[in-house]
């Protein structure tokens, strides 16, 4: 604005100057007067040139300042765009649950009057971080905080006289990396993932968030046979073709030193050790039609691997200890109806040799080992009705049955039925908002031994899940 005013003033001055010269030339004929007028005009012209020079300098300075401002603005915009682009590639999810349980229990099988034990548990809090590096490269890390503590560690001291297992108790819970995988997926039909990956055996590996199962706690039948939310180090391929989903993996195997009567191979998961032995690898594969996470689906899975070479005291056994597991699962989610089920069947070769080796390995408590099953089986069926389809109340009622028998058969002798368990229950899921679920469940626990009375249980739980 100031520049425009100065230009207008100069224009007026120039016009006046020209008019003055023209008028003077016509009116004055005296040489002295004419000379005086010319001198005056030269002074005014000199002043005009100086003002024009100053105006040009100011214009140039304004152009420089405007260029600097545009450069700074462009830099800020670029930085904001870069930060927004990076943030758009980052993902965060979390889920967790807290539970209250009230169970009848017996000190031993001779008891006829059960006592009741009530417990509270911050069952788990899980955080999931993901980043999409490019269109084809991504990563995901999942960390689980269990029971509100930092956990225990188990170490093997090979320099002890006989080799000892040492347990260090640091707190009541665990902090566990449940997944830490890199993924390369150039197409929907094919991808590769490697690192610490979920093993696709058992529905819990896929449906482990509180809103993905109806019971208060994850299914007891699966936990009595295989590791829950099973994860191993390895590499796998996966993809989706039409409505089919497939996975195939080569992963670290189990360690038979911690196979137990009550949960078959579940305790053989090497997460308790600081280092995972990889002398025995395993294969895991799965094929599903449909998507269990989104609704209706059917699927089969298979696991195969030796376990003896992963033992720290491998000199105590000279057999393979091969684990083979087959699973079949199905889900029907349509309208208000919810139905899910799974059957697991497994075999363990050389179960007697493993039992004997574990009995005589120092530090493996408890020292009094029962049999290990050469065959094991487990199943569950849960059925629910979402009443929100009929009323305004977001409530789902359900019934559930879990069954496990880790001693379906033994290599020699007769299998005890002490660890053949059945849990039947009914309950409700209430969703005050879609991200939160409040659960209640009551049921009956039965052991397939006539001298052990049936017991009752009751559980309350609250869970959440969200994503950014």
Automatic annotation (TrEMBL):
User: What positions belong to coiled-coil segments?
Assistant: 38-65
Instruction: Give the signal sequence positions.
Output: 1-27
In terms of Gene3D superfamilies, this protein maps to: Porin (2.40.160.10)
Keywords, in A-Z order: Coiled coil, Signal
Q: Which InterPro entries match?
A: Porin_dom_sf
Name of the protein:
Phosphate-selective porin
């Amino acid at each position: 604005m100031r520049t425009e005013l100065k230009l207008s003033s100069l224009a007026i001055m120039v016009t006046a100057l020209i008019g003055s010269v023209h008028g003077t030339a016509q009116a004055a004929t005296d040489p002295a007067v004419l000379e005086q007028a010319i001198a005056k005009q030269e002074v005014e012209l000199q002043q005009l040139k100086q003002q024009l020079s100053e105006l040009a300098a100011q214009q140039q300075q304004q152009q420089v300042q405007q260029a600097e401002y545009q450069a700074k603005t462009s830099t800020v915009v670029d930085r904001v765009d870069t930060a927004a682009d990076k943030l758009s590639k980052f993902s965060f999810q979390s889920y967790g649950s807290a539970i209250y349980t009230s169970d009848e229990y017996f000190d031993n099988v001779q008891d006829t009057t059960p006592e009741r034990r009530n417990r509270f548990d911050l069952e788990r809090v899980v955080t999931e971080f993901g980043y999409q590096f490019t269109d084809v490269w991504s990563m995901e890390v999942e960390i689980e905080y269990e029971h509100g503590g930092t956990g225990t560690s188990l170490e093997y001291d090979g320099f002890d006289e006989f080799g000892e297992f040492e347990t260090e108790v640091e707190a009541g819970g665990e902090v566990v990396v449940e997944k830490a995988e890199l993924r390369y997926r150039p197409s929907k039909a094919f991808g590769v993932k490697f690192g610490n990956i979920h093993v696709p055996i058992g529905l819990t590996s896929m449906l482990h968030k509180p809103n993905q199962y109806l019971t208060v706690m994850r299914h007891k039948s699966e936990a009595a046979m295989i590791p829950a939310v099973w994860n191993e180090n390895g590499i796998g391929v996966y993809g989706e073709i039409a409505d089919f989903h497939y996975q195939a993996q080569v992963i670290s195997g189990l360690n038979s030193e911690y196979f137990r009567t009550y949960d078959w191979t579940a305790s053989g998961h090497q997460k308790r050790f600081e280092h995972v032995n990889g002398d025995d690898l395993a294969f895991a594969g799965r094929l599903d039609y449909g998507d269990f996470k989104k609704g209706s689906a059917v699927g089969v899975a298979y696991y195969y691997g030796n376990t003896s070479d992963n033992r720290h005291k491998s000199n105590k056994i000279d057999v393979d200890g091969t684990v083979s597991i087959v699973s079949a699962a199905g889900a029907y989610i349509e309208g208000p109806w919810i139905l899910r089920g799974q059957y697991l069947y497994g075999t363990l070769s050389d179960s007697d040799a493993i039992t004997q080796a574990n009995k005589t390995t120092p530090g493996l408590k408890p020292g009094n080992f029962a049999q290990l099953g050469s065959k094991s089986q487990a199943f569950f069926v849960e059925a629910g009705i979402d009443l929100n389809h009929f009323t305004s109340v977001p409530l789902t009622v359900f019934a559930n049955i879990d069954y496990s028998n880790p001693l379906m058969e033994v290599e020699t002798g007769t299998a005890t039925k002490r660890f053949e368990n059945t849990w039947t229950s009914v309950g409700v899921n209430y969703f005050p908002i879609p991200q939160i679920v409040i659960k209640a469940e009551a049921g009956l626990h039965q052991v397939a031994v006539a001298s052990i009375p049936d017991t009752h249980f009751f559980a309350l739980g609250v869970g959440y899940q969200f994503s950014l």
